[in-house]
User: Fold this.
Amino acid sequence: MKVLVLGGDGFCGWPTSLGLSNSGYDITIVDNLSRRKIDIELECDSLTPIQPISTRLKVWKSVSGRDIQFVNLDVARQYHKLFTLIKELRPDAIIHFAEQRAAPYSMKSPFHKRYTVDNNINATHNLLCAIAESELDIHLVHLGTMGVYGYGTAGMAIPEGYLNVKVDCGNGELKDLEILYPANPGSVYHLTKTQDALMFYYYNKNDGIRVTDLHQGVVWGTNTPETMMDERLINRFDYDGDYGTVLNRFLMQAAIGHPLTVHGTGGQTRAFIHIRDTVKCIRIALENPPQKGDKVQIFNQTTETHTVRNLAELVSEISGAEIRYYRNPRKEATENKLNVLNERFLQLGLNPVTLQEGLLSEVMDIAKKYEYRCDKSKIICKSLWTKDIEIDAEGSNIPINQPGEREAP
Ligand code: NAD
Ligand code: USQ
Assistant:
């Protein structure tokens, strides 16, 4: 199967490209390397020493014997280059990872909010428009987020994309409707993903494009069997306050002796998935496309839920790390319950990787190995959701009116 991987140089896209290539898929990566440029802007690098894309591809060829093609293209801006590539390559499927994916980065300033909206919404729309214009029957697999749902419900488990409701028609009659689960974004980044969902809905209805939208939880871990085949294939490891995700950050903080940075009470419950399962899920999605005429297929791509506090306690137990509670730089519920359905992947054969001590230690070992590359001044989250929270000179998040105070657990 011929697959175009948009955003294939990134944290999820690179191991997915290698995993699929190793299984015999014919892979072409498209990436404008914007994530590497954001590293330069933030003056912070992946903890692991990622190689230039040309080195990555050369090494992959030498260890696997397989070619991966690369095209440097901005999906959000270079519409005709994208269209021509699709028309000439005639891929069976396109995997769309090519968006600005960090919630804190998207909230840093008006510039960052506007960049995230411009980039993500134009990228998704250009892609849909190009597939429609090409008149090719291409299966589009998009990486969405659990954050489109918000993180709470009326009490039931979050369904996979659609909600069955009864609507009062005004004359006492109740009508059954299936609707997209109501969007409830918690950041400008998450907002763009809720807009993506509407674009998929429209292009599926109007142009018959076959779409699978994968609402993924927070990804943790770094390596997959393929990225471990040579050190130069290593995946990126974001640890900074903008791009680092919570469990990888805690594991890295424990490894280098930094207190674990819990926001607020740590009562926020989130859904999680290991990077190896990300790769497996995407392969399952490719192998189980919707049929022509089917509505957008939505899977919850997540394997377990935990509170941030529980994760900190788990990491502290295995490492002895101190847990520290910071005023939350985000505007989010301090405590929430989260129950998520993920039956579709389980039915299709996913055997999930869960939070085993071995895998947690593997991430800590990587962090210890590359500790010398860590800039500790980048660890604390400094991107604030609203203007009424400030950060002190040590980088702790404190409210303007109560300097020095830390929120108790
Ligand atoms: P990443 O930033 O590491 O990778 C994204 C890649 O896309 C980068 O290589 C970047 O250069 C590229 N890109 C961005 N805009 C582009 C454009 N306009 N044209 C071409 N290339 C572009 O992010 P990731 O962690 O690999 O996430 C990939 C996708 O998965 C995102 O859409 C994200 O929303 C989703 N996701 C990620 C996580 C997570 O925890 N990492 C969780 C849920 C969903
Ligand atoms: N958090 C801490 N301490 C930290 C960092 C984060 O307590 O040091 C908390 C945050 O306040 C938040 C939770 O941990 O409550 C998760 O934060 P995160 O940065 O790990 O994840 P998030 O911002 O939600 O974004 C990540 C990915 C994004 C993806 C999303 C899936 O960057 O691309 O869409 O996870 S989900 O969370 O399910 O929406």
